């Protein structure tokens, strides 16, 4: 009986403590929120919120940067780009450099946006499809195909077979994504191996 009373008292103390903390939090927020709004209204009334950077600009090492120096560096970079561009344009106009107009965009030719293969083309490549430029961020692979013919299995890992029952018909297909071979004599690294087994 006394053990039950001790548990009740400790729970009651915990609840009272939490309620006290909650009341103090509400009191703090009640006093803090008007102060935040008053500060925001003061900044909005004098127009400092609409101005760009009311405080001076500091670098990561807290060294003060003169805005005129930034503008000088920007102007100098633009001037250098103009000089180099003008020189290159003069060389193109004089005939020293001839642009190859037949080349086109070589990046698109080397790195197509999509690759589509029929079953016969895929089989002719020994069931291997090379992605010329690899996968970029946000890329996806869509495989449309038929699984292999179903075959009976007595010990499948996807269903329980009781003694005396028929074997379970299982079909499967496999897809593997490998990296490029980097070392001679070693298999290329496996990035993804997908081999689902389907109960039929």
Automatic annotation (TrEMBL):
Top-rank taxon, per record: Eukaryota
Ranges where the Galectin domain occurs: 127-200
Coiled coil: none
Cited Pfam families: Gal-bind_lectin (PF00337)
Molecular functions (GO terms): carbohydrate binding
Keyword Ribosomal protein: no
TM annotation in the entry: 12-31
Keywords in alphabetical order: Lectin, Membrane, Transmembrane, Transmembrane helix
Protein name per the record: Galectin
The organism of origin for this protein: Salix koriyanagi
């Amino acid at each position: 009986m006394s053990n039950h009373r001790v548990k009740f008292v400790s729970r009651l103390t915990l609840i009272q403590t939490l309620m006290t903390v909650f009341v103090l939090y509400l009191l703090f927020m009640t006093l803090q929120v008007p102060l935040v709004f008053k500060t925001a209204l003061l900044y909005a009334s004098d127009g400092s919120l609409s101005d760009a950077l009311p405080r001076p600009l500091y670098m990561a090492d807290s060294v003060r940067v003169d805005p005129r120096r930034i503008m000088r560096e920007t102007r100098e970079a633009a001037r250098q780009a103009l000089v180099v561009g003008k020189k290159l344009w003069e060389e193109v106009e004089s005939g020293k450099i001839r642009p190859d107009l037949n080349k086109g965009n070589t990046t698109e030719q080397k790195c197509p946006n999509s690759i589509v293969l029929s079953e016969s083309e895929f089989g002719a490549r020994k069931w291997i499809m090379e992605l010329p430029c690899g996968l970029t961020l946000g890329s996806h692979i869509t495989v449309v195909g038929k699984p292999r013919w179903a075959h009976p299995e007595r010990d499948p890992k996807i269903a329980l077979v009781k003694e005396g029952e028929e074997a379970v018909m299982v079909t499967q297909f496999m897809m593997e994504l490998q990296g490029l071979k980097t070392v001679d004599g070693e298999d290329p690294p496996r990035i993804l191996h997908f081999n689902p087994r389907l109960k039929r």
